[in-house]
Amino acid sequence: MSVTPTSTRQIVLASRPTGAPTSDNFRLETVDLPEPTDGQVLVRNVVMSVDPYMRGRMNDVKSYVAPFAVDAPLEGGAVGEVIASRSADVSVGQHVLHGAGWRDHAVLPAESVTVVDTDRAPASAYLGVLGMPGLTAYVGLTAVAEMRAGDTVFVSGAAGAVGQIAGQVARALGAGRVVGSAGSDDKVARLQEIGYDAGFNYKTAPVRESLREVAPDGIDVYFDNVGGDHLEAAISSLRLHGRVAMCGAISQYNATDPVPGPRNLAQAIGKGLTLRGFIVGQYPQLAAEYRERAAVWLEDGLLQADETFRDGLEGAPQAFMDLLEGANTGKMIVRL
Question: Which residue ranges form the domains of the chain, and what is each CATH number?
Answer without folding.
Answer: 7-128+305-335 (3.90.180.10), 132-282 (3.40.50.720)
